[in-house]
Amino acid sequence: MKPNSQSHGDLARIKSFRIRTIKAPLDKPHKTASGTIEAAPLVLLDVETDVGVIGSSYVFVYTPMALKPVASLLGNLEELVVNEPLEPETINAALEAKFRLLGNQGLTGIAVAAIDMALWDAAARLANKSLVRLLGATPKPLAVYDSLGQMGPDETAREVETSLQRGFRAFKIKAGHENPQTDVAVIRAIKNVAGDDVWLAVDFNQAFSPPEAIARMQLLDKENLKWIEEPVRAEDYIGHAAVRSAIKTPVQTGENWWGVADMKKSLAAGASDMTMPDAMKIGGVTGWMKAAALDHGLPVSSHLFAEISSHLLTVTPNAHMLEWLDVAGAINQTPISIVNGQTKALDVAGSGLNWNEKAIAKYSA
Questions:
Q1: Residue 58 belongs to what H/E stretch?
Q2: I need a surface site. Which of 38, 186, 190, 283 has the fewest CB within 10 A?
Q3: Does domain 133-355 have CATH number 3.90.230.10?
Q4: Euclidean distance between CA atoms 242 and 98, whole angstroms
Q5: Which residues contact 54 (CB under 8 A, 6 or more apart)?
Q6: Pure H helices in the chain
Q7: Hey, what CATH class is 3-128 in?
Q8: pLDDT at position 12
C-alpha cells in the first residue's frame, strides 16, 4: 500500500518530530493484580511533513520511569526518518531491520510503534480520509466493553451502575483477589446490577501459575463469563494451553505479544480461544495488519488505544470487542462516543487524535 501517493503530486516527506511526555489523569486509579496505575504515563509524538500535514500518536509506557527513555529513543530515531517519503510500511520495515540484533521488543518496539501510528495518521490526513477508509473499509458499529479495575463487590456495583448510564452494556473486571471467593462476590454484584445475562469477562493479569489458575477457574466456570484473560504469565503459552484444556470458559490473551513473532508462538501452542493484540506492542498499524492476516479465524479484540483501535478493528474480519480504558481522554479533543454498548471509528481525516494543548501543558512530565 502506498497511502501517500494519492495527493500532493510527489511524495510528502518527513520533516521533523515533536516529542512530549505527560502523566494523564485517569477518572480513578486503575488497580490490577499486577499493581495500580494512578495516572497514565504517555509519550506523545507529532510527525510533521514537508507539506505541512502533521500526524500524531501516543504510547502508554505503564511506568513514569519509561517516559524519558522512550522520548530519548524517539529523538535518536528522528534522524533515521527525516527526509524519508511518507510511506509507513517502508519506514516500519527499515526500523525493524535496524533493531534486528537488539530486538524489536520493549522500549524499542514502543518507539517504533509510535512512529508507525503517527505516520499512518499523517498519511490519512494527507489523503483527507479517516484511517479506516484509507485502509479500505467503512466505519461501522463496534461492540465495546468498559474495562474496570480491581475493586470489592460494592464499589464494583457502583461503577457498573455508572457505566450503564454512560452507555456501556459489557464489562471486564480485574480479578485475582487474595480470597478467591471475593472474585465470585464481585461477579455476582455485577449481575445484581446489570442482569444475569450481562456480557462479562475477567482479567487475571498474569497472576497465577497454571495449577492455581485452573483451581480459580473451577469456581468461575459456572458464571458464564465471556473469557478469562491472561490467567498465567503472558509468555507462558504452554501454560495458557493447559488452562484452556482444563476449563470451559474461553481463554483470552495477546495484549503482551511483541509483534507477530510472539503471536505465531501463541497460536502454535493453542494458548487461547481468541486474540487481543495491543496496537502498540503488536507494532502499530503495520503490525496490526500483519497480525490480522495471521489470526487463524479466531475472534479479535483490542487492548487500550481505543481511538486508533476502533479503526483497526473495523478493517479486521473477525473483529470481536473494543476495550474502553480511557488513558488519553484528558488530552484528546475528539473522543469516540459510546451509545447503547457500541462505538464507531471517527470518520474524519486521521486516526481520531486532536490534542488539547492546554491539557498537555498542564500534565507535562
A1: strand 54-60
A2: 38
A3: no
A4: 37
A5: 46, 47, 48, 122, 125
A6: 67-81, 88-98, 106-126, 131-134, 153-165, 180-194, 210-220, 237-246, 259-269, 284-293, 306-314, 357-362
A7: alpha beta
A8: 97
In angstroms, the CA 155 to CA 136 distance is: 43
Query: In the beta sheet, which residues pair with residue 200?
Result: 171
**Which active-site residues does the annotation give?**
174, 303
Q: Please give the C-alpha separations between residue 153 and each of 190, 192, 249, 299, in angstroms, as whole numbers.
A: 8, 10, 22, 30
The CATH 3.30.390.10 portion of the chain extends over 3-128
CB 55 within 8 A of CB 121: yes
Cell output for 295: 489470526
Q: Which three cell numbers stand for residue 11?
A: 511524495
Q: Which residues of the chain have pLDDT under 50?
A: 1, 5-9
Within the chain, which residue ranges are assigned CATH 3.20.20.120? 133-355
Q: Strand pairing partners for 285?
A: none
CA 80, 85, 90, 96: dihedral to nearest 10 degrees?
A: 10
Residue-wise pLDDT for 51-86, tens only, equals 999 999 999 999 999 999 999 999 999 999 999 999
d(CA 15, CA 257) in angstroms, rounded, equals 31
Average pLDDT of the chain, as a whole number: 95
